[in-house]
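hiii so um. not sure if this is the right channel but i have a protein structure encoded as tokens and i wanna go backwards to a sequence. like what aa goes where. can anyone help
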């Protein structure tokens, strides 16, 4: 591993410090591209206006007309945390804005697969709905949209995924309205907004349309900011880039959660996860709440997750949150078994003396398709290679198919790689989609070897030595005067995540002593610039030399009622 120190533009850091921002925070912000204090203003007034997103005005008219005509609306959700929060935001928001009949359907990961399919469209029609609204899916659902339209449904697609490309041309489904910042012609600058953010923007546009129609005015209009805790959760959990607009959405959601102004079910999730809503952080979203919502879609029924986000009954929220926590524990057990097996298969692909192949493809008939993405992420982290993990499809009549989930490394766009494999090996990929860092696909079992060959060919061509070197970006040495508990608390309150990484420092330290705790974690006594500090390296069992360059995050733990700073070690330079 090579530890890299981020550049800190001195003018930006100085301007931020002159504006009264703490010197450490000024350096951290400047290193992440922030140039002025105005960029750190997280007020709602600073959000990009809904009018900038193509399709929101037409969507607002469609929905306002539907509400006026008392039509039945049905949301088709996705089975991950972004899809679940987008669905909950849609249901809650539409009801706030006067819709009397709002329902939802969430596809089953195993039986239905991803997105709006013709059978799902039929189910929506059979439910008596007049308007079908997709959230976090639909941009590539050509057949599902066509079926819905043929059945007489109005179709509004809200999505954030990249549209499909055929023969070099972008193609869109023939929906009544499409809202997606990544569709051609959309000038909305926050291209990385999550699906839940897109739905929130549609609601903002709908409220403006209803104001214009005189349904309510600025004084008595419904307050959509009550939805921001859910927007924040879905945005962080979907690991989208936290650009300035996304950071504002997350910051606003966190403010409300910390003030305990959050839905009952979300409050119950905090309790079930052993977290404190009053001191909520983006870490809680990504590593505590998000996985519990996602577990329902992976192993059970995402309806459980959506209902937990929709309920305003604390007792029902507690019941659902405990159920989700139990499913997440089950997910961890399945993942642990699969991870060991998958590591063994991956490591059998090369000798100990060799480098891993350019890409890793792993399959076992006993793998659970709901957990393949997590396991792919673990292998990718360990071997630093684009990785796909496949499981046999459990869908009726699809036993010959394999469903794969992939995770990538910086510099290798996974969805584009799949697109090239599909062109070079026609018929191998039955379905695929995704983003730069994560993608999914379906192949026939007999085509596994061809897929593996095709992906490795593309990886061999695209990846160079620099990309294949594991690099950890850090913020350099930590000044001793900044190693304080109150500063750790201040850092934890900020919005960190994908594309706006949490602070990680790096420098050479002295290892005074080290021991294993819980058989798989390394507890450390360190000297940092001559002063003692504790450290912990989770998941590390190998010992460290007496002096070593470490990358570490800051944390605070309590001992005998006294809080102390400790280092959470992320890596060591080798």
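sure thing!! here u go:
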């Amino acid at each position: 591993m090579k530890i890299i120190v981020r550049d800190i533009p001195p003018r930006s850091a100085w301007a931020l410090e002159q504006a009264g921002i703490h010197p450490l925070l000024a350096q951290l912000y400047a290193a992440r591209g922030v140039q002025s204090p105005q960029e750190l203003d997280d007020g709602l007034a600073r959000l990009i206006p809904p009018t900038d997103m193509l399709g929101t005005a037409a969507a607002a008219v469609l929905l306002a007309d539907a509400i006026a005509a008392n039509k039945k609306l049905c949301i088709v959700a996705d089975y991950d945390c972004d899809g679940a929060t987008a669905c909950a935001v849609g249901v809650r928001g539409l009801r706030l804005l006067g819709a009397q009949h709002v329902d939802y359907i969430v596809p089953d990961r195993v039986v239905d697969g991803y997105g709006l399919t013709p059978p799902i469209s039929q189910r929506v029609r059979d439910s008596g709905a007049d308007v079908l609204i997709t959230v976090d899916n639909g941009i590539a659902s050509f057949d599902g949209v066509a079926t819905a339209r043929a059945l007489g449904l109005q179709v509004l697609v809200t999505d954030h995924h990249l549209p499909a490309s055929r023969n070099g041309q972008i193609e869109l489904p023939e929906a009544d309205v499409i809202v997606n910042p990544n569709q051609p012609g959309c000038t909305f600058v926050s291209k990385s907004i999550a699906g839940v953010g897109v739905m929130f923007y549609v609601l903002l546009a709908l409220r403006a349309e209803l104001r214009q129609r005189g349904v309510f005015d600025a004084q008595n209009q419904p307050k959509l900011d009550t939805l921001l805790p859910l927007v924040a959760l879905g945005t962080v959990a979907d690991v989208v880039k936290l650009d300035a607009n996304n950071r504002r959405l997350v910051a606003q959601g966190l403010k409300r959660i910390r003030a305990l102004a959050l839905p009952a079910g979300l409050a119950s999730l905090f309790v079930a996860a052993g977290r404190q809503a009053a001191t909520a952080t983006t870490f809680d979203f990504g590593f505590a709440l998000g996985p519990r919502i996602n577990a329902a879609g992976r192993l059970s029924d995402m309806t459980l997750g959506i209902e937990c986000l929709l309920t305003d009954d604390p007792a029902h929220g507690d019941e659902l949150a405990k159920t989700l926590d139990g499913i997440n524990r089950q997910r961890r057990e399945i993942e642990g078994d699969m991870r060991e097996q998958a590591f063994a298969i991956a490591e059998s692909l090369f000798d100990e003396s060799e480098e891993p192949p350019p890409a890793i493809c792993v399959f076992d008939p006993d793998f659970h398709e709901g957990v393949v993405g997590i396991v792919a992420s673990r292998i990718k982290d360990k071997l630093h290679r684009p990785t796909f993990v496949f499981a046999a499809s459990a869908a009726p009549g699809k036993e010959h198919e394999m469903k794969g989930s992939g995770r990538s490394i910086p510099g290798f766009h996974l969805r584009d790689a799949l697109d090239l494999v599909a062109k070079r090996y026609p018929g191998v990929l039955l379905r695929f989609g995704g983003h730069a860092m994560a993608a999914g696909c379906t192949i026939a079992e007999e085509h596994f070897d061809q897929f593996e060959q095709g992906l490795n060919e593309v990886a061999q061509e695209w990846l160079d030595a620099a990309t294949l070197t594991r690099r950890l970006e850090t913020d350099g040495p930590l000044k001793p005067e900044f190693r304080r508990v109150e500063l750790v608390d201040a850092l934890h309150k900020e919005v960190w995540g994908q594309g706006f990484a949490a602070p990680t420092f790096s420098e050479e330290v002295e290892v005074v002593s080290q021991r294993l705790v819980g058989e798989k974690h390394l507890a450390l006594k360190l000297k940092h610039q001559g002063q003692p500090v504790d450290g912990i390296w989770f998941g590390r069992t190998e010992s460290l030399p007496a002096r070593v360059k470490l990358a570490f995050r800051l944390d605070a733990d309590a001992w005998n009622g006294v809080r102390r700073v400790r280092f959470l070690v992320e890596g060591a330079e080798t």
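oh and The CA atoms of residues 113 and 473 lie 37 Å apart.
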